């Protein structure tokens, strides 16, 4: 596996603490990412996201700095090239004026999954932004 990286940065008109909650509360996360989630938001606490009834992401929280930074591992159940916990996602929340700059990086993605993850994060972060700014729920 090579250390391929996906990075997205977007401005959301919402406070940091609100955005943060959409990464650590299962009922909120599943409004924009996947169908359902089991989350234990503490150091080394597990996360499991049912993406589409067939594909499941699994990992562990590594860093939880309330309202400013979240890091967790990521991988796919049953995958040999990208198993649970083999890549890492970091979210930085930086307050600015009437909203927050969200920066997401996803590192150590297998090269054959780079485009899929880049498009997936772009689409899902757009959903998060729409949900928080327009009240448009997905799922």
UniProtKB/TrEMBL annotation:
Family from the record: Belongs to the AHA1 family.
Pfam families cross-referenced by the UniProt entry: AHSA1
CDD domains: SRPBCC_CalC_Aha1-like
Gene3D superfamilies tied to this protein: 3.30.530.20
Protein name: SRPBCC domain-containing protein
Positions of the Activator of Hsp90 ATPase homologue 1/2-like C-terminal domain: 14-132
Top-level taxon of the source organism: Bacteria
Cross-referenced InterPro entries: ASHA1/2-like_C (IPR013538), START-like_dom_sf (IPR023393)
């Amino acid at each position: 596996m090579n250390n391929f990286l996906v990075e997205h940065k977007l401005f959301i008109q919402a406070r940091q603490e609100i955005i943060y909650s959409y990464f650590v509360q299962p009922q909120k996360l599943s409004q924009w990412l996947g169908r359902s989630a089991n989350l234990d938001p503490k150091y080394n606490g597990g996360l499991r996201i049912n993406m589409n009834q067939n594909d499941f992401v699994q990992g562990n929280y590594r860093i939880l700095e309330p309202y400013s930074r979240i890091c967790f591992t990521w991988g796919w159940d049953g995958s040999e090239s990208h198993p649970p916990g083999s890549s890492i996602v970091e979210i930085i929340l930086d307050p600015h004026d009437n909203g927050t700059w969200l920066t997401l990086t996803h590192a150590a993605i297998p090269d054959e999954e780079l485009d899929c993850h880049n498009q997936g994060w772009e689409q899902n972060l757009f959903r998060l932004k729409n949900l928080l700014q327009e009240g448009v729920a997905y799922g």
